[in-house]
Amino acid sequence: MRYPQGGGLTAERRQFREELRLKAAERFAQGEASSVIAKDLRVSVRSVQRWRQMWDEGGPRALRSQGPASLPRLSEKQFAQLEAELAKGPAAHGWEDQRWTLSRVKTVIGRRFHLTYTVQGVRQLLVRNGWSCQVPARRAMERDDEAVAGWVKEVWPCAEDSRRPVEPGSSSRTKPASP
Q1: SS3 per residue for 32-69
Q2: How many other C-beta atoms can be found within 10 angstroms of the C-beta atom of residue 59?
Q3: Which residues contact 104 (CB under 8 A, 6 or more apart)?
């Protein structure tokens, strides 16, 4: 799996890959074949061929890591400010209930920092900084257990029975009555 948490490669993994490319560069200088290098380094021949092309164009310096594919758009200081805003609660930002959703966090980021994130980008930002999805530890005070029990007894059986009855079917789409 390439990006397990959706956050790209870790610094250690980038370092490991850079070391592989630099080992390959040493062997390019010795004139070894791409297939031999690929087998020894346990990478694809195509990767070695791409590395060789980069090495031909820019030398070993071209094989160095470029760093993470994208830098976080919110700095650590800005994320600390975002956490302070989230600690105030949704009501302080104009929502009636006390639920933080990804789209609400996205809205707060847009209002506070004038940055546009996607909902998935907000999720990745929060996960990268140690936040996780939360489920309430207790039931809502507004919950009416009697109404829930009545719904389960009366409405749910009707919804469950609304499915099509199981009957012998036909293998023909054009002539349902044919054997």
Answers
A1: CCHHHHHHHHCCCHHHHHHHHHHHHHHCHHHHCCCCCC
A2: 12
A3: 90, 93, 95
DSSP letter for 166, please: P
How far from 60 is each of 13, 25, 63, CA to CA, in Å? 19, 6, 5
Tell me the pLDDT tens digit for each residue of 22-76: 999 999 999 999 999 999 999 999 999 999 999 999 988 888 887 766 666 788 8
Q: Contact 109/115 with Cβ under 8 angstroms?
A: yes
Q: Which two tokens stand for residue 171?
A: 């293998």
Contact partners, residue 35, CB within 8 Å, separation at least 6: 45, 48
C-beta neighbour count of 18 within 10 angstroms = 14
CA angle 101, 107, 112 (to 5 degrees): 125
Residue 69: alpha-carbon gap to chain centroid: 15
Assigned token pair, 16:
């490991």
